[in-house]
Records
---
Amino acid sequence: MAPNVISQRVRRLHFRFATFILFKLFLLFAIEVSRNGQFQWRVTALGHFYNGINEGQEKQASDAYCWVIRALFGYNASAHLAEETHEASVVVAKGMWMSTLSAWLLFIIPFVTIIFFCIEDFDGIINASYANNWAEYLIQMVGPKGAVAILGILWVDPMCATASCFVSAQRVTFAISRDGVLPFSKYLRQLNTN
């Protein structure tokens, strides 16, 4: 939340740092995997499925729905931020589809592809003693120290998503308080000089 409150410059640096981390993480995976020669064949990567909770087609359909939702980061925030621009009816639509497209291009396509093609021991991941199987996958790929580094890097990503949510919430709070709907609207609709 601090980058949203301090200044626009700090927020800009925060998001640039997050973008740098995203590309660094992608390169870290690609370099480590290519060095160790751990890529799997297409049949192994895309032909092995596991349904550990045995809830049938309904569960698989809900999981597929959740994967689609996961790819829509920034969708809501870009729409809210674009509402106050010139020609908002055009800018909002562009912001919505561009945020979804960029999420797919920057996350779903490269990372999910790398994950599928780099699994070494599928049963080891499923039977791992960790609360999250992602840690076992990372240990297989980059070793314990690399796994800790990547999990640390991934800790920054939710902070950036939270910052986007705060920006969106601030914009919505201002718009509603401007109309006098919220309690203390007089104070919430005030803007600073920045």
Note: The radius of gyration is 21 Å.
---
Amino acid sequence: MRKIIRIKKNISEMLPKRDPAGHKGTFGKVFIYSGSYGSAGCALLAGRAAYRVGAGMVKISSPECNRIIIQTALPEALYDTGSFAGRMHILDKWSDVYLAGPGIGTGSESIAQLDALINGTGLKHLVLDADALTIISSDAGRYLIEDIRRQTSEGRKIILTPHGGELHRLMKILPTESSELNKLSETLSDGPADDDRLLLGIAISKYLGCTVVAKGATTFTISPGKDIVCNDDCGNSGMGTAGSGDVLAGIIVGLLAQGLDAYSAASYGVRIHAMAGDSAAKVRGEHGLMAGDIAEFIY
């Protein structure tokens, strides 16, 4: 029977060990597909967070309208044009891990780009967040669900990071959601089995074969065959702010880039995010806390 467990570690204990002789390639290359017109900030927050947890290189793919913003605000990051669907074979030679979704929109071009990332990148680790989750739960993008299921069955590690609303949208992908949820309600121990986010996360993780981070004031990390990790002892109301989820996604993909497995990267990422948010709140206050502050307190 699966248990609900809690991690009791400090940030420094969860960050991957550094190779004293390492270089930027040693610590992983992250490709981030993020941002659209008016939402360059999503890409910046995710990219900065990936760097703050130790990723060696970050390349951000975003529309041309965001080029100057990104390269000015985050000069450490490489920039790639937002249209890459026809050259994934080139980008995949560079990239170690992928993040897709923050602020990309849900139109036809975004669907095509997401398709390229899912189907043109072999079995490399992939984090799907925000608009990517909306796409795969939509009528237009739901065909990608079978690709995800096939790839996870072949060993690919994919992490989904939905909040409550995105979880409920993803519920539409389940073939028999009501019976599945009722059956799952009897499989838990040592935890709040009545939390619908937890039950939805379990159902979606099981169906897709993915790791699911069910975000909220209490966040659950659910991975096939693993104990469920509950984070309810750190984090604060100030983190309920625009861009906080982009920072979390960047943290997780940055940990993946350094060799952590999907389960560890997701569960450690949640706790690092929450603890950094608490440190930031001590300085900024919960009312004044902004998402960018969270990344600056990862140490």
Note: The longest strand covers residues 57-62.
